[in-house]
């Protein structure tokens, strides 16, 4: 059985995903602005369009995981305040998730330790997508001088 402090701590950790999402959104916005620059009269560069598309695709992948992490953060926060009735709320949660097709029916027997580890896996996925987006952005910035010399 999970304690109130365990659930609060997990919810707090999952809420850190919001800051990661903001960073990814900023990178995606920059990529979108650069990608749309030819509409404002800038010279169209096919390589630039490719890089912007890749940055946006990675940003969308990160956004998917961020939404899932945010949902888990809110659920853990709600349940932490009701730990005295955790068994009842767990059954209600599992039934609701199954009805909304957000969880297979056969996963409802999971314990809270397993659920916590699953939520942390979602956060790790979000971090990996953000790291891929950051790495691509850094490689683009470092490669721009070389691309302008050769291209």
Quick description:
This protein has 151 residues and is an all-alpha fold. The chain has helices spanning 4-15, 17-36, 46-80, 86-99, 112-150.
State the main characteristics.
single chain, about 150 residues, mainly alpha, 5 helices
Textual characterization of the structure:
The chain has one domain. It has helices spanning 4-15, 17-36, 46-80, 86-99, 112-150. It contains five helices and no strands. The longest helix has 39 residues, at 112-150. Helix content is 79%, strand content 0%. Helix 2 packs antiparallel against helix 3 (46-80) and helix 2 runs parallel beside helix 5. The chain has 151 residues and is mainly alpha-helical.
Q: How big a fraction of the residues is strand? A: under 5%
Return the average pLDDT rounded to an integer. 89
The helix/strand series, from N terminus to C terminus, equals HHHHH
Question: What global shape is seen?
Answer: elongated
Radius of gyration: 20 Å
Give the proportion of residues in helices: over 70%
Characterize the main sheet.
none
Number of domains: 1
- H/I helix tally: 5
Q: What is the strand tally?
A: 0
Question: Are there runs of 5+ residues with pLDDT below 50, and where?
Answer: none
Structural class assignment: mainly alpha
N-to-C terminal Cα separation, in Å?
61 Å
